[in-house]
Amino acid sequence: MAKQESSIPEAISASLLSFAQFLEEQGQVHQSLDLYLKLVERYPASPEAPLAAQKLAAMAQGSRQAGQPHMALRALERLEAAHQEP
Fold this sequence. Notes:
- The protein is mainly α.
- The chain has one domain (2-83): Serine Threonine Protein Phosphatase 5, Tetratricopeptide repeat, CATH 1.25.40.
- The chain has four helices and no strands.
- It has helices at 2-25, 29-42, 49-65, 69-83.
- Helix 1 (2-25) runs antiparallel to helix 2 and helix 2 (29-42) runs parallel beside helix 4.
């Protein structure tokens, strides 16, 4: 039973990453940003979290360059908060 319970967070984090990537490819940047952030915040130890963090950093950089510093700042603040020690 413990094996099955531990696989649930892994399945959720994998699904979040897949759906976030799909939304990003479809041009739904805000929605994908929220899912990447959710993954990093809720499942920081998952195998998908580093890729989600990289995506967030790239999206923040792109937002800054596109003249949307508020979106970049929001993403970076939440990413930083997710990596702080409790």
